[in-house]
Write a structure and sequence with these properties.
single chain, mainly beta, 4-stranded antiparallel beta sheet, 60% strand
Amino acid sequence: QVQLVESGGGLVQPGGSLRLACAASGSIFKINAMGWYRQAPGKQRELVAAITSGGSTNYADSVKGRFTISRDNAKNTMYLQMNSLKPEDTAVFYCNADVLTVVGFYGDYWGQGTQVTVSS
């Protein structure tokens, strides 16, 4: 099994900051790309940021300059530092990872999500 668990969500005022974490565990041989997605009520899930095993990153235009994605491969953990948060950032944030398991599968795995609410 492979599990992804997000943490760090919560309620923050506009302009504030949050740091999300995603911890992967289970039958992991290697994790290739990882990413953060978000889904607001009534909206489709969208990619926020992604990072390769080597540390290359890309961001949605809406978060460039405000969010920073990073990962610690030794800990199988990914982070999303979110600064200058806006009400439109309010969403459930999901962790995603492409995982090569110890039995030879490359699978696409998702966490359960963590709520981020930006409101005054």
